[in-house]
Amino acid sequence: VVAFEPITELNHDFAANMTLNQVGNVTLVQAAVSQSEGEMLMEYSPEHSTQGKFQTAEPGLKVSGAHPLKVRTVALDNYVETEKVPDFMKIDVEGAAGFVFSGARKVLSQMRPTLFVELHGPEEQASMDKAVQEYGYKVYDTEGTPIESIVRGWHSPIICRPE
């Protein structure tokens, strides 16, 4: 398991929890997954720590009491060149799935992992719809029922399998 957590305090909490529970099969990376290597600004509030998001993702999604925080970013295509190839990815990035997919073109087109995606708004919904079509994925709800269109109605979470 590889987990990405860009916020220092949350990364430390995650590491402490893994130690407390004697979890040894997780690699914890202090970075956010995005379209490129570098840095981006997140809106982050310690009072709403699970709702931090990239400032430029899903503009209608607001984080109460948030302030800008610069975080390190990685692109999955670059990351998997030196690490293990994923066969399953859980993506819950508060509106920024499009950023993840932009940095995972090789992963999605060649390695074809199954995806479990939490959607947060219409911009992310649209980018996800485009990605599943581009990379030839079939979309299902958590009961296994096929979803013909991500942008018609509201579906979250979704499971995407390569066709």
Explain this structure.
This protein has five helices and eleven strands. The chain is of the alpha/beta class. A hairpin with a 5-residue loop joins strand 9 (137-140) and strand 10 (146-147). The longest helix has 14 residues, at 122-135. The radius of gyration is 16 Å and the shape is globular.
Q: What ranges have pLDDT less than 50 throughout 5 or more consecutive residues?
A: none
* H and E string: EHEEEEEHEHHEHEEE
Going by helix content, strand content and strand pairing, the class is alpha/beta
Mean pLDDT over the full residue set: 91
Major sheet: arrangement of strands: 7-8-11-9-10
The helix count comes to 5
The amount of helix comes to 25-40%
The major beta sheet can be summarized as: 5 strands, mixed
Radius of gyration from CA coordinates: 16 Å
